[in-house]
């Protein structure tokens, strides 16, 4: 049964191996660009802000920047593609063609039939995604360190161990959808829809609850009116800077009474004809504070482990559903 499953899966496996090899070559070639551009940051001893900004600007405007954004897209596209093309057809194709009955009539139990498929292709899924994530994470480590953004939603899901859990979940979701629907194309569509909805919900609503966020209300710095982005044309608003090296959930100016401050109701205090500095002076007299809720970079691995456990748990639950459905509902 293992040999037969491998023969069915060998073409996708070879394609995946070729794609990984091609990406590895691109990353190795472009790694030298990062090393050269990072030399000024590595040599910096103190006050390295300008060196870091210069490095990031030059990197994003170089060929390395194109590779960087391409790898981000690949990391987010790989799990759903695995679910669609490896998971959904794995069982649905055999149910659709009726070839599953041939296997069951040759002294192979239903449980062994499904377990072999899940174990072999699932292991290949974890291995391929793990190698991909390791390569991309290692390649982009200096950029992520300089940008201090690995915990932000855009980068978080494309680094570390989370992509492995995404891929295993997507694969198991595809298998389950194929078993329930019994049609390959509808199962592929269902896999894409459910996976996209859940992964999109993580940074929007769910991830922040996986670890306790930090809540602070420091005094609002009114030293620079322009830095606070107060629009002098009439549509007043204050937007404090995000907390450095963190994923900011909430960042609002509030009054002493705890009300969100959006600017004066009219332009009598902060109008376009007011002298420079007078608006900031008046707003500063209000005693505003910055209401900020964020996850510091120190929680990166806590969130990585929690989200990985969540998606692996969902994958295990889907596998249990698949086995139950196979034994009770399929014939």
From TrEMBL:
GO terms for molecular function: ABC-type transporter activity. It holds the Pfam family ABC2_membrane_2. GO terms for cellular component: plasma membrane. It comes from the Bacteria. This is ABC-2 family transporter protein. Keywords: Membrane, Transmembrane, Transmembrane helix. The chain crosses the membrane at residues 68-92, 113-140, 160-181, 188-206, 308-326.
């Amino acid at each position: 049964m293992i040999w037969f499953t491998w023969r069915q899966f060998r073409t996708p496996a070879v394609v995946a191996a070729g794609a990984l090899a091609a990406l590895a070559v691109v990353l190795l070639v472009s790694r030298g660009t990062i090393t050269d551009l990072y030399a000024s940051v590595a040599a910096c001893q103190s006050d390295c802000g300008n060196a870091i900004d210069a490095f990031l600007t030059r990197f994003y405007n170089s060929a390395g920047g194109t590779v960087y954004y391409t790898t981000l897209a690949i990391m987010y596209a790989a799990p759903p593609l695995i679910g669609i093309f490896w998971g959904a057809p794995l069982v649905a194709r055999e149910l659709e063609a009726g070839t599953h009955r041939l296997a069951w009539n040759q002294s192979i139990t239903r449980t062994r039939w499904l377990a072999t498929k899940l174990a072999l292709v699932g292991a290949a899924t974890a291995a391929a995604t793990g190698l991909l994530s390791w390569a991309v994470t290692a390649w982009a480590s200096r950029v992520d360190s300089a940008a201090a953004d690995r915990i932000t939603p855009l980068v978080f899901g494309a680094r570390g161990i989370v992509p492995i859990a995404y891929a295993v979940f997507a694969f198991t979701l595809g298998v389950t959808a194929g078993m329930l629907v019994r049609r390959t194309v509808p199962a592929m569509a269902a896999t894409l829809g459910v996976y996209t909805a859940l992964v999109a919900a993580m940074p929007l609503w769910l991830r922040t609850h996986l670890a306790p966020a930090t809540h602070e209300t420091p005094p609002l710095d009114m030293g620079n009116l322009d830095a606070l982005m107060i629009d002098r044309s009439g549509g007043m608003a204050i937007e404090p800077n995000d907390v450095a090296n963190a994923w900011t959930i909430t960042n609002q100016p509030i009054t002493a009474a705890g009300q969100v401050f959006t600017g004066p109701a009219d332009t009598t205090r902060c109008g376009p004809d007011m002298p420079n500095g007078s608006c900031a002076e008046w707003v500063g007299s209000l005693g505003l504070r910055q209401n900020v809720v964020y996850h510091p970079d120190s929680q990166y691995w806590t969130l990585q482990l929690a989200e990985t456990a969540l998606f692996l748990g969902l994958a295990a639950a889907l596998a249990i559903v698949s086995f139950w459905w196979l034994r009770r509902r399929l014939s």
